[in-house]
Amino acid sequence: MSDPSRPTDPDPTWGTATLGVRAGEMRSEFGEHSAAIHATSSFVFDSAEAAARRFSGDEPGLIYSRFTNPTVQGFERKLAAMEGGDTAVATASGMSAILALLLATLRTGDHLVAAQGLFGSTTGLLNNIIGRFGVETSYVAPADTDGWRAAVRPNTRLFLAESPTNPLCELTDIPALADIARDVGVLLAIDNCFCTPALQKPLDLGAHLVLHSATKFLDGQGRAVGGAVVGDAKIVGEDVFSVLRTAGPCMSPFNAWIFLKGLETLAVRMQAHCERAERLAAWLDAHPAVERVYYTGLPDHPQHALANAQQSAHGAIVAFDLRGGQAAAFRLINATRLFSITANLGDTRSTITHPPTTTHYRIGPELRAKAGINDGLVRLSVGLEDSDDLIKDLDRGLR
Questions:
Q1: What CATH number is given to the structural domain containing 187?
Q2: Residue 138: inside a domain
Q3: What is the pTM of this model?
Q4: Tens-digit pLDDT profile for residues 84-94
Q5: Last residue of some domain: 264, 299, 316?
Q6: What is the dihedral angle through the alpha carbons of 239, 242, 243, 248, rounded to the nearest 10 degrees?
Q7: Tens digit of pLDDT for each residue in 266-302?
Q8: Fewer C-beta neighbours within 10 Å, C or N terminus of the chain?
């Protein structure tokens, strides 16, 4: 009889959907079929000697739920298997995942190169918090491969990019950027929030690290906040984990259980999201009130070929510029009845927002202009409703 506490070791031939359902979970002595929630802050030792061995690292095992919890570890193992990494570290939010990575890899006097148009909070973290500790950031257009190489300095330690970006869905050529990173000896971290491992595997494309806001598509129903860093046993398993253990931006067992259940359906959900998003993008592209649609699934998108090369589909995020600027954008948003007006994304429910006055407001008008975020920009996160109903809801506002 097999040991019920042994983690499910993934078969190297398993696909992403199978990994999402089967990989990484560790059953207790009760042999439960569905992952358990280990709602405990601490763990009991058999003796004082056993406790000493655990704390010294001489004996593996659970100590304290800030950094060792079976439910959280189940989520970490499953996500690492789906991304193709050695290990993952789960955190309290997507932003705390980015912070943990920066604290683990950068020191005073270091320099990093980041993509223009990063999520507003990420830009604020780099400029207003990390910058205070003597770490300088240079920004380069995500698709400007030559610009990334030109921005490298002797003290550059990290490349940080989202691909696709939020909200314009601009891509970084991950293999090309990975080649540059190897040439100059820096780490490459890719935020894979929009694609998830169901559509894109940055580690397979040459990246060293993958970042996630589990709050979005990994959960898929807008229920919990969390994040993760995925990568190798040294950078993530030791350095990032050390930050988590000491600084404490940990994921709760209950949230980890939610994300575990979300990963089980990730592959089929992302397929359904993409189907609906492609139809909406094509409809918007033909609408006279729409000036431009940002969606790589459109054949005339300038990065359509790159998306086909490094993604298996084009994702659920559709952004577009309206003729008439902010006033037109607000009229559309206020006229919708089916879309939820919220800045979150990755939900079964379709959402709509105006990035210049919400998610990217704090970066200021100058950085928004450089990133191409215009006043008439609207971002959709296409959910799982019927496409016809979503189109009718948008048509009401556009008319």
A1: 3.40.640.10
A2: yes
A3: 0.94
A4: 999 999 999 99
A5: 264
A6: 150
A7: 999 999 999 999 999 999 999 999 999 999 999 999 9
A8: N
